[in-house]
Amino acid sequence: MVSPLYIIAVGLGAAFLLGLLPEKWQRAAYGVTLLALALMGWIAGSWLWAFALQGAAPVEIFTAGTQPPFAINFRVGLAEASLALLMALTGLHAALYMRDTLFKQGRRAMAVLLIFVMATCGVIFTRDLFNLFVFMELVVISTGGLVLLSADRRALGAGLKYLIVSQLVSILMLVGMVFAYHATGTLNIDGMAAAQVDLFKGGALAFFLMLMAVLAELKPFPANGWGLDIYESAHPAFAALFSAATGAATVYAADKLLLIGGAQWLPLASAIGIVTFVVANIFALVQDNDRRLLGYSSIAQVGLILTVIGQRDLLGEQYYFVAGGILLAHAVAKAGLFWLSGLVAARGLGDWAALRGHPVLVFAFVTFIALLVGLPPFPGFYAKWELAHALAANGQLWLLGLILFGALLEAAYLFRWFGYVLKREQPQTGLLLQAIKEDVALSAVVVAWLLAYLWGELSGQGNLLQAIPLLFALLFLPLDWLPAKLKNGLAVAGLVGWFYLHYPSYDALQLIFAAVMLPGGAIILLASFQTQQRRVGFYPAAMLMFAGLAMLIEAKTSFAFFAAWELLTVGSYFLILRGKHSEPHALSYIVFSLGGAFLMLAGFALAAQGVPDFKIAALAQVAEPFAPWVFALLAIGFMTKTAAVGVHIWLPGAHAEAETDVSPLVSGILLKAGLFGLFVLLMTMGKQQLYGVELTHVMLWIGAISALIGNLLAIFQEDAKRLLAYSSIGQMGYALFGLAMMNHLGWLMALMFVINHYIYKSMLFLSVGGVAKRTGTRDMYRMGGLITLMPLSFIATMIGIIAVSGVPPLSGFGGRWIFYNAIMTAEYRLPMVIIFLAGPIAFLYLFRLIHTIFLGQLKDELRTVKEAPFWIVLPQMIFVVALLVFALVPGMALRHVDAYLAPFFGGQSGLDWAGLTITSEFGYWSPVSIMLVIGVIFATLFAWLLFVNRRAQPVKQFNIVFAGERPFRPETTHFAWNFFAPYRKALGFLTQPLVTIFWETLTELLHSAADILRRMYTGNGQTYAIHLLAFVIIVYLLWMGGL
Amino acid sequence: MRIPWALLTLFIVINYGLLMTALVQKIGARVGRRHGIPIWQNYIDMLKNYALRTSITHGVMFYLGPVFRLSGGVGLLLFVPSIYGSEMFANFSFAGDLILALYFVFFGTLGMALGAAESGHPYSAIGITRGLSQMTAAELPFALAVFAVALQYQTLSVTEIVAAQQGGVLHWTLFTNPLAVAAAMMSFLGSMMRPPFDVVLAPQEIPIGPPTEYHSSFLAMMQTNRALFPVAKIVVYMNLFFGGAGSWPEFFLKVFLIYMVSAFVGVVFPRFRVEQSIRWFLIWAVPLGILAVVLV
Amino acid sequence: MKEELLKRIVKTPDGQEIEIDPLRDYYCEAGPTVQPPAYTAIIEKLFNWARSESLWILGFGTGCGAIEMRPLMTPRFDAYRYGIQWRPTPRQSNLFVISGYLSVKTLKRVIRSYEQMQGPKYVVGLGSCTINGGMYWDSYNTIKRLDDYLPVDVYIAGCMPRPEALLAGFEELKKIIRAGKAEGANQYAANFDWYKANQKSVIHDWDMPDYNW
Amino acid sequence: MDWIAMATGFILILMGLYGALTNRNILRIIVSFSVANTGVNLVLVAVGYMRGRTAPILDEAVPMADAVTRIIDPLPQALVLTAIVIGLGVTALMLTYAYKLYEEKGTLDISKCRDLKW
Amino acid sequence: MIRRFAVFLLLLGLGAIFADLLLGYTPSEELNLTARYYAEHTAQDLGAANIVTAIVVTYRGLDTLGEVTVLFLTATIIGMVLARGRKHRALQRQLPAAGELLTTGSRLLVPLILLLGVYVFVNGHLTPGGGFQGGAIVASAALLLLLTDPLKRFSHRLIAVMESVSGLFFIGLGVLGLVYAGGFLDSRVLPNGAFGTLFSAGVMPIIYSFIGLKVGAEFTSMLTHLAETEQS
Fold this sequence. Notes:
heteropentamer, C: alpha/beta, Rossmann fold, two-stranded antiparallel ribbon, E: mainly alpha, 8 helices, metal ion binding (chain C)
C-alpha cells in the first residue's frame, strides 16, 4: 500500500513540475495533470480496496518520524479512502471535462486544479487542526483561482465575495484554534477530543469559533450567498468540483471537528443543518437559473448531511452508511448535473428541454435526480430509510418531519425541472455537445448505478438491484431501440409469466390484487400494441410501475413494501408525464405521492422503533403511544394514493392528461396499490384511537366525502377523461368507506370495488381514450352522435356505465348490495347519508358521458371518424366479457376472499355462497336469476317492439320536431355544454375548490416567501460577510446563551 | 310454475294501473267540475298508438329506450312480492331483496334517458338533465328511509319486512317509524312526475322533455309503463311502510290511496324549478330521513 | 337557401377535408308512401274506432281561431270526455287544427309540422279563412285555400266558429274516421308532387327538405 | 500586562472588520482585512507568550537542559509564521481580483458588483 | 447608516465573544505537553537549535509545505489571471527616470540584500529567521529593483524554474524522509551533525534553503506580475 502522503506529494510534485515545462508543451502538461490525478485516484482506490474488501484496519500515517500530537499525522480509513477517491475522480473528470479551458489557460490552471484536488485530499486525511486549516485555506485560494476559469465574467465578483468571506472564516478559525490549543495543549484532533474536558473548562468559546468557521465553509443559512454566486457563475466542471469535492471534504472536516466537541455540540450541528436544508430548498423553488438552482440544492444537501452528522450518536454503526450514502449520492448527482449543465447552451431551466433529443442524456438526468431525491434503488434511499428509522426510534420526530419536508420540496423542484426537460418547447439554443463532456457526464451515471448496487449490498435489507421485477423493468432500458410491438409482447409475457409463476404462493387477498395488477395490466397493455413507433421511454416506466406493484404484493417487510411503493410511484410518474399536456399534473402527482410516501416512511419508522428488519405483520404489535400515529401516518400515505378528498387534487389532471393506454393503467391499476396498503394496514393494526377519536371513523368520513365530492365534481367536467378521473375519486371513496367500516362485508365490498373498478374504469378510459384519439379532442361537447360510427366503443361505454352506476343486473349492483348489507352492522350512520347522496349523482355524470359522446348530434368534422383501433377495442371487449362473467358469478373470486377475511372478524363467513343465491344475515341476492329474469323481459319487449316497428322509417339527425322550425347546425343542437346547469345552481356551492385553494395558497405562500426572502442575497459581498457575522452572533446568542 | 303467476300479476297490475290512472284523472277533472275522460280512455289511446301506420326511428337506442323503461317497470314489479303470504303472487322475489328493488328503479330511468338521447333532440337532453338532477335529490330521502326501515326490522328482505308489520294497523311502519315514512313519502312525491316536480316534462318549453320524439308503438309501450310503474313503485312503498297487502282488494285500495297522495299534492301546488326542488328535498325531506336513520 | 344549408368543406380530426351537404347529410331524403290499412277489415274498423276516440290535437295555434280552442278544455265544454286532448309535439299528435288564416310564413311551419306527424293524421280547417281566404282573400301574404296545400278532412265554417261548432266538427271528423274515409295522409303521399308544387309556389324560401320526417 | 497584547490584537481584529464591512472600496476592504489579520497574528503570539521567559532558541543563553523552564511556547510562533504567509497569499489574490474587477467594471465599489444575486 | 449600525452591533457581539475569551484567559505557568516535548526533545532528536525552525520544517513540515504551496498557488493564479488580459495592453506609460540616488543605491544594496537573505535562510535552524524571512528579504531586492526601474523585466522563465525546482526538491526531500527515515519530511535523512553548527539538524537547513529560494521566487513573481499591471 502506498502511503496516502504520496497523494499529496504527487499532486504537489506534478503542480511544481508543470512550472518547469515550457509554455508551449500544453499537451505534455495536460498529460502530466491527468497522470497525476489518475495516480492520486489509484492510491486512494487501492486503499479503498484494502479497507472495503480486505477488511484492513484504519492506518495512522506519521510525518517527521514523530508521534502525534507533536507532529502532524494523517489517518486513512474506509471513509477517508473513499472520499479521497471521490476527490481524485471528480478532479480527473473535471480535468477531462475542462480540457479546452485548460488548454486555453495553460499549465498554471492545471497546477491550480492539481493543488485543489490535493488540498481537498489533505483536508480529508489530516488529523491536525492547524494542518486542516492550512489545507482549507489552500482549497479556498485554489477555488479563488479556479472560479476564474469560467467564461462567465461575473465569476470575478463571485470569487471576490468568496475571498472576503473566507477572510472572516480564517480569522474566526485562527482565534478559536489558538485558544483551543491553549486549553488543551495540543493541536491534534484526537488529542483535543481526548482532552475534551479541559477544552470545555474554559475553551468552549474557542471551540465554538472553530466550529462556526468550519460550518461557515459548509454554507449554512443565511451565510451562504457567496456559495450560490460561485455555483452560478463558475465553469460547470468547477462547480461540480466545488459541490462534490469541496462539499464532501468540508463535511468531513466538520465531522472531525465535532469529534472534538463531543456529543453536546451535535444538536447544534443538526439544528444548523436542518435549517439550511429546509430554507435552501424553499429558496430553490423560485430559481429559474439551472446552476443557481443546483447551488441551492447543493447547499441543502450539505445541510442535510450536517444534520446527519449531528445525529451521529443516534445512528451508531449506521452513521457512515447513512451519511456516506447521502454524501456520495449528492456528490455524484450534483457533479453529473453540473456536467450536464455544461452541455446545455442556455441557462434557463426550460432550456434543458434541449436534452430531449438525446434519450441517453435524459436517462442521465433522471438518474441524477433520482439519486438526489433518494429514490430506490439509489443510496440515498437506503440512507433515508435508516435515518428515518434511527430518528423515529429515538424520538427525534420534529427533525424527521423537517427532513422529510425539505426532501419533498427538493423533489418538487427537481421533478418540476424534469418536467420542463420532457415537456417544454425545445429552445433554439440547443446543446453544446462535445464527446468528452458527454462521456464525463455519463460516467457519473455509471458510478451512480454502481453506488446503487453497492449500497444495496451494504444495507441489511436486501439489494433492490437484485429484485427480478426491477431488473426486468430495467432491462427495457437497453432494449428501448426495439419496435414497440416487440417490447409490448415482452412486457405482456413478463407480467403474465410472473403471475403464473407466483400465484400459488399468494393468499386470497394477494391473489385478487395480483390478478388485477399483473394479468390485469397485461390486458390493458394489449391496447399498447396499437402504437407504431418505438415509444421510447414508455416501457421502462411502465414496467417500473409493474415491478413496484409486483414487489408490493409480495413485500414481507416494511422496507420491501416501501421500496416497492416508491418504485411504482416513480414508474407511474414517468408514465403520466408522457401525456401531451401533463407536465403540471404529473408534477402535482409526484409531489403528492412522494409526500404520502414520506408520511409512510415516517409511519414505518415510528412503528419499527429501531428494529432493523420490521415485518409488515409486526404492525399488529405496535404499542400504544405510537400505534395511532403510525396508523394515521400510514393511512394518510395510502389515502394519498387513492386520492381521498383533501389530497385528491393531483388525480384528475394526472389521469386525464395521460396517454390513452396509460390512463387505464394508472386509474384501473395504480389506485389499487393504495387500497392494498389500506387493507394491509387495517388487517394488521385494526382500530386505533387518537385523542379519543376513532381513526377508522375519520376515514369513514373521508371516504364518504370523497365519494360525494368526486362524484359531484365529475358531473361538471367537460373533459371526458377528467370526468372519469373524478369518478375514480368517488369510487375510491366508496372503497375507503367500505374498508373503514371495519366489518366483514365492508371489506368484501372494498374488494368488490377493487375488481369492479379495475374492469369498468379501465374499459371506460380505453373507450373514451379511443374516441378521443379518433376525434382529436377530449371535450365531450365537441363530440356527439358517434354511436353509429364507433359502435363497439359505445357498447363498452354503455356496459361500463351500467356497471358503475350499480344498476342490476351488472356487477356494480353486487358492490351496492354488499354495501347495504355492510352498513346494516356499521356503528356509524351519519357518514352514510353522504354516501347515499353520492350514489345517484353517479348517474348524472355517467349519463352525461355516454350522451354527449355517443348520442345526440353528430358533428360535421366527425362524420367520417372510424371505430377506435383494433388493439384499443380488443381489451374493451375482454372487459365486457369479464364484467358479464363477474356479474354472473361473483362468488368465483369473492368467496375465497370472504373465507380469507373470516378470521379477522370472529371466524364465521360473512356471506353464504351456497347455490346460485348469495345470502347474508339480512338479505339475499341471486345474480343468475336476476340476469335471467331481466334478460327474458328485455328480450321479449325488444322483440315485440322491433316487430311492431318493422317498417319504421330510419331518419337522420335533423329529423326532429323543432316547434315547426328546423335545427340550425349540429353544434348548436347538441345539448352538451354545462349539461347540469340546474344542478350547479342547486349544489354548485359544494364544488368550491376549497382543497385546491388550500394547496395552491400553500404553494403560493412558499413561493412568495422564498421570493421575498431570497432578496436578502443582495449580491453584495459585504452583505454576505455581514450575514456570516450575524450567523455567528445569532448562533452564539442562541446556543451559548442556552448552554 | 312462477312464470304464469307472474304473468297474471303483470296482467292484473297493468289493467289496474290503466284504470286507476284514468280514475285519478277523472277525479281531478271532477274537482275542476269537468266530466273528465272516459275510464277506458287509456286503453283507447294505447290502441290508437299501436294502430298508427307509420313510425320513424332514430337508431337502435331509440328502440331500447322504451324497452329499458318497461323492463324496469316489469322487473320492479316482479322482484317484489305483490301479495303478502301468497305463494302465487310472490313473483320472483327470491332473486333479490329490497336492495334489488331500490336499484332496479334506476334501470328504466337510465335506459329511457339513453333512448331519448339517441334521438338527438336537445329538448330530450334538457329534460333528462332535469329529471336526473331532480332524481338524485328525490331518491336520497327514500334511500335513508329504506335504510331506517331495514335497520328497524334488521332485514333487507321485503317479505320479512311485511311480515314484521302484520298484526294490526299500528304495527305498520307508518306508525312505528313515522319519520322514515314522512321522508319516503316526500321522496315519493318527487318520483311521480306530478306537480310540483314535473318541470322535467314542461309541455311547451321543452315539449314534454325526454319522450318528445316518441310516438306510435314506442309511446304505447311507455304508456304501458306509465300505468305499471307507479303501481310497482307503490307496491314497494306499501310493503315497506303500509303493512303490505294480504289480498288483491287490499292491494288495490292501498295502491290507490297512496297514489292519491301525489295526485292530491299535484293538483294543489304549482311547479318548482329544478334547483328549487333539489333544495326542497335537501332541506325538508333529507333531515327527516337522517333523523329516522339516527333514531332507529 | 339559408347559409347553413349550403354545402361546405370541413376538416376532419385526421386532416382530411370532407364535403358536408346539410340537406342530404342531416335529413332523411325518403318521401312519403301510401300506407295500406290493416290486413283485415275488422281490425281496421277497430283501429279506426280507436283513432276516432283518441284525437290528439297538435297544440299549434296558427291564427286567431286558436283562441276558440282553449275553451274546449274548460268545464263548460270539456273536450276530454270525447277522447280529445292536446299534445305538445307533432310526433304524438294525429289531428292538426288549422285555426284560422295562414300566412305564408306560418304555412311553412305548418307543413313541416304536418309532415312530422305520424299517419293516419287528420287536418281540420277552422274558420272561413281556411276555406277561401275569408276577409283576407286579397291579402298579399296569406294563403286562400288550405286544401291546395294540405289534405283537409273537415272544414268548420264561421268567423269565428264558436267552441260548440268545433265540437260538432270533431264529431263529424270522428264519423269520417270511423267510416274509413279520413285518408288524408295517404292522399298527401299519393299526390305529393302536386301538394309540393303548390306549397313551393307560395313559399319562395323553401329552406328545408322536400319531406320533413 | 500580559493581556495588553492580546487585547490589542482583538481590538485590531474588530477595527479591521469594521473597516472591511463598512467601506465600499475594495482596496480599503483589503487593507482592513490586513489589519484584522495582523490582529489575529498578535493574538496568536500573545497566547504563546509566558512572562519571564525567552525565545525558543537553544544557545548559550538557554542551555538544552533548562529549556523547559526558560523558553516560551514555540508552537504559536510556528503557527503565526504560517498564518502570516497564508494571509499574504489571500491578500495578494484579493488584490489581483480587485485589479481585474477594476479592469472589468471601471470601479472599485463593491456594491456595484452585484450582477449575481438572489 | 443602517448598515454601519448593524455592523457595529454585530461587532459588539463579536467583541463580547472576544472579551469573554480574554477574560477567561489565564496564561499558563508551564509549558504544556506539546511545548514541553519540543523543548525537551528537539535538540536531541533533530539537532536544531531554533526550536521554531524545527517545528516549522520538520514537526509541522506539512504545514510549511502547504504554506509554500499557498504562495505558489497565489503566484500561479496571479500569473494566470494577469497573463490573460496582457495582450491587449500595448500602450506603455512614459515614466520619469528614477533618480541617481535610487539607481546607485539599489546597485549597491541589491547584492547585499541578497546575501543577507541567503544568510538568513541558511542559518534558519540556528538563529531567528529562516526560509520565509530569508525569502522575503530576497524578494525585497527584487522590489528595490522594481522601484528603481518600474519597467524592468525579470525573467519569468527563471522565476518559474526556480520556484518549481525548489518546490520539487522540497517534496523530494520529504519523500526521502518517508523512504529513509521516520516519515514524510523527517529531517533525519542526513545525520544530525554537531549541535549548533551550520551543517547540522539533518536536511533541515537544506529544506529551509529551498523554502527560502522558493519564497523569494514566489514573491518576486507576484511582485513582477503586479508591477506589470502598473504599466497599463
